[in-house]
Each structure stands twice: as structure tokens, then as C-alpha cells.
Amino acid sequence: SILIVDFGSQVTQLIARRVREAGVYCEIAPFNAADAAFDRMAPKGLILSGGPASVTDIDSPRAPQRFFEAGLPILGICYGQQTMCEQLGGKVTSHGSGEFGRAYIEVADGCRLFDGLWDEGSRHQVWMSHGDKVDALPPGFRPVATSEGAPFAITADESRRFYGVQFHPEVVHTPDGGKLIANFVRHVCGAAGDWSMAGYRDAKIADIRAQVGDGKVICGLSGGVDSAVAAVLIHEAIGDQLTCVYVDHGLMRLGESEQVVGLFREHYGIPLIHVEAEALFLNGLAGLTDPEAKRKFIGKTFIEVFEAEAKKIGGAKFLAQGTLYPDVIESVSFTGGPSVTIKSHHNVGGLPERMNMALVEPLRELFKDEVRVLGRELGLPPAFVGRHPFPGPGLAIRIPGEVTKDRCDILRQADAIYLEEIRNAGLYDAIWQAFAVLLPVKTVGVMGDGRTYESVCGLRAVTSVDGMTADIYPFDAAFLSRVATRIVNEVGGINRVVYDYTSKPPGTIEWE
Ligand code: XMP
Fold it and tell me: Ligand 1 atom closest to Cα of 510?
């Protein structure tokens, strides 16, 4: 196994994912809990993640010093490289400017890290994101690759099997990065490549049984793939100790509630309570316009409805949720590792502290596409598993400004037309996520010789591998104009349609 020491990078889980793709089991531990994880796991190697801090600051995080005396291979990435350098007697400085985005490195010397992968003198695209850089190497290290902005783009101490990379091999913008990480864990560390999703499923089932015992669990179904996969996995682990609760907040897409209830009650025979709470949610959303306030209200209300249901069921001690890794990283600033909060994700940010149920979150380490693999492993219908992600707060975060029943109905119709056209064009599976947004902006139009003054509808479609970064889907103009015409003609309340051309970053996928 491999231990990943986390210094709070937004993309630490991508390292774990690359290690899993190499077929190797790994765990992530925050730097200040890494000692215990190390003793428990007895890993074959260590990876030190990136992070937002600067090693030149007095209180910035460090790896436990004994890790460098354990005789194990270590790969330091970005901040991880810098702290390794500092802790071993080298020097890191802040230059005031950094390197961000695409860069090219040149291989200056051979090294086990890229043995069999890169030749001396070859050039490779990498993704840089750093302010500080290594100025003097610790004893035993030598540079093996350089970039324009970083003379020590890759450094190595072969005798100790310590490697430092200034760039991020875990992101897709470093095309050979996955192979580099695979090379490190398999070839340098000699870890066995026996990890698989089937094994993961069995391990999670065992974990769930151990956590829950003979307790009762209620699982919140959201209508999406994540909570469905979590529910089926938990049902497989503990059978009818599980009751699913579908809180219908009235912010679902057209026909979605009927589908979910049908799949669980009829197809799986999993006990399901359908709570119709549209009025409760819409009343509470009245007057709220701030995105975080909306998210927090929905998250909080969701949990309250759950608590009420849990009381009715009686004796349920556990609440199961389909929280995925991107939800966690974008919501949480864990102790000591200061990741920045971008959005309070529903299921995480809205959790009131007074809640007296323990959480069961078996998908917390996975990315969306890994959840789909797990879903297929569990026998969920492929069409269901292939559905685009849908956020917990539903249409509320696709209606910037105040959310009303009328506006939800308008958006539902526009969204259904858009998705129908995407399906008809055979594009559904090529797109990670597509949806309509209803803007709180009215514009003037002309229809049948009359003046109109109605809302603007935004269309979004992105490709992504993991939801962490995304690119716009490049529809052809004929497709977009067909959708725009249909929406304006068929949906009362919309007289203009625009297409969102923003990637993530700098945009996020949802508008709020
Ligand atoms: P953003 O907008 O942060 O979205 O780029 C990344 C992915 O996460 C989904 N999303 C959510 N999922 N609860 C969820 O379960 C939420 O509160 C939430 N907010 C965003 C979003 O749809 C996209 O797939």
C-alpha cells in the first residue's frame, strides 16, 4: 500500500486516484494525522501532496521527520517536494511570482522515477502551479529535469529513492503524469497491483457492517447516481436494516421523482419513504437570493426532514449519504490543511452540528466515474448509472436569485427540451453534464408582432473526467439554434437563450 500525506491541495484525491488506476491500494492522511496512518498501514512508499501553504512561513505544515528515515521511497509533489527539500537541509524561497498552467520540462539525466518512460533530452508537457521554488538542493539530491521557471523541476536522490517534482503529475494536463505515478508505486516502491473495484466493493461492505453493527440506517436518496449507488451498496451490506428516504424538495427535474421511486420500490424492493416537502422548501427559499444562503438552507432543511423521518422510523442511528470526494474537498477546510472553501456542498456544508446521527458515506473517496464503475459492479441499470450528475440542492442553484414554484416550472420545461435534443442528437454520453439555468434577467423580444419582456435561459454543457476541472462542450451552431428556438417557442416565460462558454476553472460547473 501507499500512504499519501495531504498538505491540503485541491487535487490530493487525484493522486489517490492515479495510484488506484495503477492497481495499488492507498490511503490519504492529513499531514498531522500521518504518523498514526503510517504505523497502521506499514506502507511500501509515501507520496507528499501539494498544498496552499508556503514552506517559508513559520507555521507551515511539515511531514513527520521520521518518514525520511524509514528507508521507504518518497515522492514529493509541489509543496511536498519543497517541504522534503527543506526538511532534508535544502533551501526554498518565495520569488513573488510563480509558474501557473502549462509548462514544458526537459529531461537532463536518467532516473528510476521515469525509467522506461522518458528518455534523456526529451521534452514533456506538465502542469505547474506554484509560487515558491527550490533554490538549493539537500545533500544527495541532483536535478534530473528542468523547466524554464524551475531548474529543479524534477530532483532525485537515487540512493534513498527520494524524488521531488515541482509540477502536478496527478492532473490530466500532465499527459504522462499517471504513468509517472504508476512507475513510482509499482516500479520504485514495488507495491502489488491487486486493487480492483470488486475488491473495493467487498472492503466497503465489510466497513459498513463493522460501522453499523445491527443498527438501523436511513439513506437519503437524491435522485442522482451517487445516493443510489450508496443505497444499493449499503442494502447489499445490511439488507433491511436500511430504509431509504426520498426527500422530494420540489427542486427536481421533470418526471424525476417518479423514476427514482419506481426504481427503488419496484426494481429493487428496497423500503422507501417518499416525503413530499415542496412547500416546506419553497416557503423557506422565499426571499433568499445569496447562493450560500440558499445552499445552507436546503442542506439544513434536508437534514431536519431526515431527523423527523428517522424519529418516525424509530431507532435509526445512522444516516447514509452518497457524498463524493469532490463534494468533500470543495466544502471542507480540514484542521491544519487549509483548502479554501469554494461552495458549501449540500450533504456536507449544511450538516447542523446538533444532528445526532452518525454518517455512513461509503463513496467519500471516489470520483464520479469511479462511482459509475462501482454502480455497474453492483448491477444498477446502465442507463441509470450513466445519468449526468445532479446537485443535491437541485434546481435552486440553477435559478440565480429568488426561487419560486413558477420559476422552477419554467426551468423544468426548458431543461427537458434541452436534454431531449441532446439525447436525440446522440450526444448524451459524450457530455459530462448538461442543464439549463434560468436567469433573473429580463430582456425585450418580439414575437408575432408583439413585444415580449421575459427571462433569459442559459444553457450549460461540459466535459469532465472528475468534476474538478471541466471544458465546455462545443455544440455546433445548428444544434444550439434548434434548442434555442424550441425553448423560446415552447416555454412561456423565456424569450432569449444564451450558451455558457466558460471552462472550470475559472468558472464552476453550476452557476451557484
Ligand atoms: P461545481 O459547480 O462545484 O460542481 O463545479 C462540480 C460538480 O458537483 C455537483 N454539485 C453538487 N453535488 N451537492 C451535490 O451533491 C451539491 O451541493 C453540489 N453542488 C455542485 C455539480 O453538479 C457538478 O457535477
Answer: 2
Burial 478-501 (b: 16+ CB within 10 A, else e): eebebbbebbbeebebbbbbeeee
Domain limits, the chain: 2-188, 197-282+295-330+357-385, 404-499
Any ligand 1 atom below 6 A from CB of 345: yes
Set of cell numbers at residue 21:
488506476
For domain 404-499, which CATH number applies: 3.30.300.10, 3.30.70.100, 3.40.50.11500, 2.40.50.140? 3.30.300.10
Asked if residue 343 has its Cβ within 6 Å of ligand 1, the reply is yes
> Residue 510: CB within 6 Å of ligand 1?
yes
Whether this model's ipTM surpasses 0.90 comes out as yes
Each residue's pLDDT tens digit, 136-189: 999 999 999 999 888 899 999 999 999 999 999 999 889 999 999 999 999 999
> Cβ distance 28 to 69 under 8 Å?
no
**Residues tagged active-site:** 78, 168, 170
Q: Whose CA is nearest to atom 6 of ligand 1?
A: 467
Q: Which atom, in ligand 1's list, is nearest to the CA of 433?
A: 24
The protein residue with its alpha carbon nearest to ligand 1, atom 24, reads 389
Tens of pLDDT, residues 430-474: 999 999 999 999 999 999 899 999 999 999 999 998 788 899 999
In the reported structure, the alpha carbon of residue 397 is separated from the centroid of ligand 1 by a whole-number distance in angstroms of: 10
Burial 266-284 (b: 16+ CB within 10 A, else e): eebebebebbebeebbbeb
